[in-house]
């Protein structure tokens, strides 16, 4: 699927001025959250990202994220539609290195997004996430050949793609019930805003990326 059809170009153009994480990682985070939650509103997305210590998204990017979240929930709720889900990574006109790194970032994002849902896991799901964490831990230099080449990349891409499909039928909950933001008024000031106003005595540490629980030492 080329970049125009997949939405890669749309995301790139809309979020080009926001550099906290890559678009693949943001898409993975969105997907991980959408496997367990109902689609958030723009304000709910803004609150979640703020509590994860991300800079505010531009308005157009926040709208895109909310719309994509809604579409993803709709897609993943249906077993047949779910099989058409695809991680947002660049097409094969980009170098293999770019695609591997984008998939690695998507995997990290998914782990974070699903991690903040506090959902229980079956033994099979836990094993799948452990394997996804290995994709998120890939180390590759730009001038280094990826072991196994295109065939290996397609294998790990398909494995990553099937995880949201496998998680798709779980019962979903409202985003406002997440421990991350539970008790916060959705239109309340973020921790960063409170810190800037001097109303918090010291910075609140960001939520730990669940990848840290899975990366090999």
From TrEMBL:
Q: Which Gene3D superfamilies match?
A: YgfB uncharacterised protein family UPF0149, PF03695
Query: What InterPro entries does the database record attribute to this sequence?
Result: YgfB-like, YgfB-like_sf
Q: Which Pfam families match?
A: UPF0149
Transmembrane stretches in the record are none
Family per UniProt? Belongs to the UPF0149 family.
Q: Which PANTHER family match?
A: UPF0149 PROTEIN YGFB (PTHR37528:SF1)
What's this protein's name? UPF0149 family protein
């Amino acid at each position: 699927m080329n970049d125009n059809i997949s939405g890669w170009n749309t995301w790139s153009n809309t979020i080009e001025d926001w550099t906290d994480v890559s678009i693949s990682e943001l898409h993975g985070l969105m997907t991980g959250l959408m496997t367990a939650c109902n689609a958030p509103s723009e304000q709910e997305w803004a609150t979640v990202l703020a509590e994860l210590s991300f800079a505010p998204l531009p308005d157009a990017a926040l709208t895109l994220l909310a719309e994509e979240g809604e579409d993803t929930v709709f897609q993943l709720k249906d077993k047949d539609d779910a099989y058409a889900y695809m991680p947002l990574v660049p097409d094969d006109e980009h170098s293999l290195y770019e695609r591997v790194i984008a998939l690695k970032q998507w995997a990290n994002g998914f782990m974070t997004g699903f991690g903040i849902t506090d959902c229980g896991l079956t033994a099979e799901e836990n094993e799948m996430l452990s394997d996804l964490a290995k994709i998120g831990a890939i180390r590759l230099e730009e001038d280094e050949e990826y072991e196994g080449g295109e065939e290996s990349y397609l294998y790990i891409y398909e494995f990553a793609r099937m995880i949201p499909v496998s998680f798709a039928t779980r019962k979903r909950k409202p985003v406002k019930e997440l421990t991350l933001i539970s008790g916060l008024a959705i239109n309340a000031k973020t921790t960063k805003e409170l810190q800037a106003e001097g109303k918090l005595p010291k910075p609140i540490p960001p939520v730990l990326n669940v990848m840290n629980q899975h990366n090999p030492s």
